[in-house]
Amino acid sequence: MIIKLLDILRIVIVCLTFYFGYSIGFTNGYDPLAQLHFMIPVIIATIAGISGFEGLLFAKKSAEIKGFEVGSNYQRQSAIALLSYAVVAAMVYFFNWGIKAELTIFFAFIFFFIFSGVNHAIEAIKKKNYKWQNVNRPFITFILIAGMIYPIIMAIKML
């Protein structure tokens, strides 16, 4: 039950982040830098941070829900990698390292999730493992990318 609640929490927080991020971005004209400065750390901390803690604190249940092997060292390494994205995103935000650093951590994070989405899709198709995470990960990753493309392109144009 806690894993499902964490999954819902991730989705709700990211949806709220998009709502407030786009509100911030369009407050006085359009400011993609302000929008991304808010959205990137919140999205990464939410998705990677919660997923990382889930993988470490609820490893057995999390693996079972996804239909993966239980107790894998790779699962622990993946959780640690996810937590590292969250920590670096927080550092970039709090030290105010700027849009280039924010985009760098976002691209590292999003490429991890693109490859993860492909892995989950293969798991669903090849092994007929139609668990929620295997089916939704490719689509949720695509939606996340679609929502971030415009502000990222506009921010890059400003560099």
Question: Helices and strands in order, then pairings?
Answer:
Blueprint (H helix, E strand, L loop, with lengths): L1 H24 L6 H26 L1 H8 L6 H22 L4 H28 L5 H27 L1
Describe the structure.
- This protein is an all-alpha fold.
- The protein has one domain (2-158).
- The protein is 85% helix and 0% strand.
- The chain is built from six helices and no strands.
- Helix 1 packs antiparallel against helix 2 (32-57).
- The termini are far apart.
| Beta strands, count | 0
The averaged pLDDT comes out at 92
Taking all Cα atoms into account, the compactness measure Rg is 16 Å
Low-confidence stretches: none
Report the order of strands and helices.
HHHHHH
Q: Give the biggest sheet.
A: none
- Strand portion: under 5%
Spatial shape: elongated
Total discrete domains: 1
Number of helices: 6
Report how far apart the termini are: 45 Å
Helix content: over 70%
Helix and strand content put the structural class at mainly alpha
Key traits:
elongated; 159 residues; mainly alpha; 6 helices
What would you say about this model in short?
With 159 residues, the chain is mainly α. The protein has helices at 2-25, 32-57, 59-66, 73-94, 99-126, 132-158.
